[in-house]
Amino acid sequence: MTGPLVGVLGGSGTVGRVVLDRLAGYGTGPLRVGGRDPGRTRAAAERVGGEPVAVDLADPASLARFCAGCGVVVNAAGPSYRVLDTVARAAVAAGADYVDAAGDAAALAALGRGAPAGLAERSALFSAGLMPGLSGLLPRLLAEPGPLRRLDVYVGGATAIGPLSAVDALLTRGPGFGTALAAWRDGRVAENALAPLRSVALPGFRHPVHAWPFLSAEAAALAADLGVDELRNYTVYVSENIPEALATAWAADDRPLEEHVPAVVAAADADVALDGPWYTLLFHARPRDPARGGPTRLVVRTPDSYALSGVVAALAAHRLAEGGVPPGARPAAEVLDPRAVLDALAADPLVDGVELG
Amino acid sequence: MTPPTPTTTAPDTVAADLAAIWGELLGLEPDDVPTDTEFLRLGGDSVLSVRMAALVRRRLGVVLALSDVTVEITLDRLADLVRRRSTAAGTVRDLPVDVVRRADPTAPFPLMPLQQGYFVGQQGGWELSYESAHFYGDVGLTGVDGDEAADALTDAVERLAEHQPTLRARVTPEGMQYVLPPDAPGAIPAVRVYDLRDATEEEATATLERVRAEMSSTGPDPVHGPGLDLRLTLLPGDRGRLHTAMNLLVFDGWSATVLNRELLTLSADWNAVLPPLEIDFGDYVQALGRLTGTEAWAADRDWWWGRLDGLPQPPALPLRADPKDVRPVLMHTRERHLAPEQWAALRAACAERGVTPSTALLTAFAATMARWAGHRDLLLNSLQLNRLPVHPDIHRLVGAFASTMLIPVELPEGATFAAAATAVQRVFTEHAAHNLVSGVEVSRELARRRGTTRPVGPVVFQSTLGMDAAVGDRHPSSVGPLGEISFADFHHQLRTPQVALEARVYELNDELAVVFSLVEELFTPEEVDAAFAGMVALTEALADGSGWDRVLDLPAAREPEGDGLRLGRLDGARGDDASGPLADDVERRVAEVWEDLLDVPVLDRGADFFRLGGDSLVAVRALARMTREFGVQLGVRDFLDLPTVAGAAAAVRAARAAEAGSASR
Fold first, then answer.
1. How much is the ipTM here?
2. Residues of B at the A interface (Cβ-Cβ below 8 Å)?
3. Closest CA to A300 of A334, A344, A345, A339
4. Are B109-268 and B585-664 equal in CATH topology?
């Protein structure tokens, strides 16, 4: 392999395994696999012929050793709220580009505070997952043939949430993340503009679902970027279980967040028990020019949203390895080519279906 | 059913306490919190709503389920909820609503589900629909005081319209209803008089036929005037006829009985005073509106929804025409009366077997339909005149309270009539216990699940046996200047949309009337005759006691079979193969009109208006909006044949093409 050395941290996890498989498949470059558990890390490395390295995120020296020599470092370890910009700083310091499969606005902001000098040379891509990630990238395809009057985004389904991800889910609240019940209208956030939709039938979704309006920071940035008149962004659930668990937790904010983790995990398990795991991204555009041609709807379906975020992270790493990405820290959605990503998804075994029309 | 006791309690602090809680959470002065605005619109969110529930629990000691406290709740509804939760539930089924007098008795209020059906039927929206859904009847009078009768009747109508606001009811073209004040022009139904006292017998007969034909085929329409049309014919020899046409949009069968009685009571005596009514029909509708979304209502809905997929098919009666191709003007009738002693014997036999006469006749009707249709499991529809017992005056009100109820009848093989009737009674009672959700709504959902535009319950059973006792009193037979009423000389005619065949059983003058009203164009008349004769023979055998222990002669098949044109087996499939992204600007604009009306995203050209949550009433509104949006006239039937975005857009394009074609000619 001729590409740069790519280091994948958290390579034995759900996401990390997929990142490694795909990078090996794309032939991006030689692989280095980092993890806390030496045995599992070695096993994961063996599957892709990579080099195993034991890393403790809390130990800066071991992290620096892991990053040394890498052209690109991919972080697939969580939880994002604890990792924040730790790995990104280590990677940039070692002269590597960086990809974070999760890492949302909070991580980006953390990196921005006293940004490392290396960022003038290297690129750091955050939010290289599904949501945020694909949800901010793929709708751009629908705006390519001409500007949009309205864009609707529906993302969700039934998916198991591990304890660490549950903490991330519980933290998706506050100004850095988005505004519940808000829409984007005429260049700004319109609060309380939308009501929750209960038992609605949506194309690409298996059953009638509940859709909760949530104007995420990513969605607002996308709306501003594309100049759409209106953007409606919904998080979709198959039942009231998860919204209730989150609302209950947020209402009792005098207790530590961790206390609410089991309820969120159980709520997600209950959703999956209904009809197995499934996840859909639906984007629906209304062009400003009624006579405009081109696609107005995109549906992507997957049985495993967490694993699929590994594919997105791998595509981002591959893109960085190709070179030519401007330096600095930004969301992956602002850098990746939506068409190329969609083509890769359509060919990926983790994707059940892609419909663009 | 016990009438609820009026809830008079200490000054109500619930509303004030809740306003204080909302004020705290939303940063408003308690007095500034509007009571009719959603929590969401005031800046609340799901988190605050959970906190609100917690505060309610702490301060008022009332536990609310999270599903109750949605962000869409208003302060008024929350106060209702808290009051209900804070009072212990009684032993009988407590209806979680109180009926209260509306501040403005002339304010518009929505149509009840069955009213919606009739309203849409009047727009030609359904197959088997008529310009008006109405009941017509005329009855002979003897000993009429020809000089006084018309005045007495006119005066009685005026007083009755003052007493029963529904006589002044109107329906708007958008499908709302309201009551005119008594002094509004045209508010009081006028009485038309045909004075034929000096006419020949031929002239009298010709006039009677003309009036009957006119009143049977052109009913009073509350969209354009009173829903009641009253006429009086004065005939030679102090005879006369009283003609009544009532639109079903405003009067149900129970109301017809009440209205006739009160009208005759007032006609008989200038000084008669009816006991005042504390509430009106609009108050009832308003109270029922608050029922939707309550736990009790949701429990009934879930009960029905859980059964829908297992319901049988309607009787697969052989047809000679497809209902969508016939344009009936009148429904035809078969009628037979059982003499008072036969009817008394039938009641006694029923009492002995522990079934109600209504159940016995429903079972007889089901068996008759089973034999005709060739299968034993049948979905029958029924008209229900029961009113929810929300107020002691409720049974004395005139209004369109009626609803429908689907009854799945599964007649057991090899059973005696008595055993079958016992089974039917059990099923009927169980289903009637879940009547907070109307059969119209259940049928709508069933049609949605079966993916059909055809009526799901076109065969109907209606019994008003026992209603006279419930209404109280009896018809006065002596009516002052109007003379004596000859119940034996009674002519009637019914038109109800979406019904292929309806069996009606009622009491008149101590006799039992068994009637089939049907769309004659659909059936082979000899088959109708045979079925009716079979039902009558079975009823007579029940009266003489011989029919009960006989094993019912029924077809072996449970499900419909056999080919040819049959009821319930018609192609009603909606073309939903058109699914995909909205294809062009017309489809996108159709989708946006629907989104606006239905408040749900419409993102697929195959999206079905009714599966998206639309009902027939909203369909009428959608058509009006699309007509405005595209500037072309769209037919209701075209829309219902293919109620998808793609279908509606195709109808728009076709209408445009047709207009362009006629313009170029």
1. 0.83
2. 40-41, 43, 45-51, 54, 66-67, 70-72, 579-582, 585, 588, 592, 599-601, 603-604, 607, 611-612
3. A345
4. no
